[in-house]
Amino acid sequence: MKTYKDFITLRYHNKLNPLLWTDDKLNPGVKDKLLEIAYLFKAYCNILPNVEIKDIVITGGNVNYNYTRFSDIDVHLVIDYKEMNIGSFDSTKDYFLDKKNVWKKANPDVKIFGFGVEPFFQDITQIIPRHQGIYSILNDKWVLHPTNIDFVYTQDLIDKVNVFKHNIDRIISINSLQQAEIIKDEITEKRSSGLATPLGEFSEVNLIFKELRNDGYLQKLSDFIKAKTAEQLSSSAVN
Questions:
Q1: Which residues contact 46 (CB under 8 A, 6 or more apart)?
Q2: Span 64-99, pLDDT tens digits
């Protein structure tokens, strides 16, 4: 019988990623390269001189005990969104999300030890979830040390992941763009809600999201939506 260790792509370790960390400190070469990438992203986003960089930190699975070979290195430049003078908080965040997405597409091969680097501008008011590590690469020290909670991925979680996989396969098989967009929105919205809870990275919906992403199901869903949308738009143009 398969156990969750055989079946699920998620993992939980008893030490930080040894490719990046030595004796609880970020390897100097890794730190220097991440700072270089952060400042390149700052220039790419046209950040004005009057916008102060409060800190440059890394977070996510590679600053925690739940890293996998799929984990990115999340590099966050911390600023006060209000200093951007773009508009509302949401419009400022959307601006940076758009910049991040275009930057990733233009720089798909920017990796450190095989891990993709994902830069972003984070507002100073962002809540830090429980157990999540935050390391300042600007100051070379922990902002918040991760908690090793010896997490176990349960069979119940696997069952819920399998329901989503089954539904995605079914939706693609019946060729339904509408249902594909609905389930994609459901997964995205639930993940956002989960990340906003105290459990954060370890909320059930975020773990489901990560398993679907790691196992290629989110890409499969996204590819189907893009292809189906292009097909419909092309048909409309002809008719």
A1: none
A2: 998 988 899 999 999 999 998 888 889 999 999 999
Q: How far apart are CA 83 and CA 78, in angstroms?
A: 12
Q: Is 16 left (phi over 0), alpha (psi -120 to 50) or beta?
A: beta
- DSSP H or E run through 57: strand 55-59
Show the tokens assigned to 162: 């399998």
Kindly report the CA angle at 167 between 4 and 218, in degrees rounded to 5? 70
Q: What is the pLDDT of residues 178-215, one digit of tens each?
A: 999 999 999 999 988 887 777 777 888 989 999 999 99
**Closest C-alpha to 148, from 11, 10, 14:** 14
* 139, two tokens: 């100051």
Closest CA to 167 of 185, 179, 153, 154: 179
For the CA atoms of 67, 186, 196, 120, what is the dihedral angle to 10 degrees?
60
